Amino acid sequence: MDVHDKKTRSYNMSCIKGKNTRPEEMVRKALFSKGFRYRKNDKRLPGSPDIVLPRYKVVVFINGCFWHGHKGCRYFVIPKTNTDFWVDKINANIERDKKKTAQLEELGWRVITIWECELKKASAEKTIEMLIEHIKQESQESNLHPFAVRYVDLFNDSHVRESVLEDGLGEECSKFGFDMDAGESFIKHYSEAAFYNADALESIIDKVDSVELLGSGIFSRWRYITHWAESSLLVDENKKWFLLALNRLAELTT
What we know:
Elements: H1 6-15, H2 22-33, E1 51-53, E2 58-63, H3 83-106, E3 110-115, H4 124-136, H5 141-156, H6 162-175, H7 184-190, H8 192-196, H9 198-204, H10 211-228, H11 236-252
Helix pairs in contact: 5-11, 6-10, 7-10, 9-11, 10-11
């Protein structure tokens, strides 16, 4: 049965937002605090997922229990008034959800759905923990360590051709989903000096604890040197910077 009267139900409906809802912001804040970096409501993907984690090839939808028809949930109750309308509307939403999930999976994305009821106070912490575990399942994390070690070896190889580093490093960073943002994220968290200067990076390297931010810094530094600075990746200053960053990446992904 409907637990609300008509006036209360109407008011609740009018307050519901389509994007950036409280549950969505709760999940985003929790993921960010754990070092995850994401895009939100990416219109380039089917269904404009609430959270997109490119590095893990994962998208997350935070669904309202009523609007998306969470069967068996106490918050999914069809209103007594205009019942046929609501049944048709919610069933259409369910079919749309199935379609966008299939489209995303066909594109190689893993789709995770969190229900609004799972983010209530009593269960929110456990839900977030399980989400993080699920995100990391079968992720590319295991490939990051050999990637870092391989490029440490390449930078230490006195016979390496610079073209190998110029062509390969940026391409692989892109495949891992690291952001190439001109170093903004790295600078914000660890200082501008640490992005541009190897000695400054060395002084704080043990404090760098986010794989996502470090990967973004490596990708952005590669872009800065190869496209804007008119410098070489193998001059002593740059070589030292990349060796520090890549060795730290190897440590964090062991």
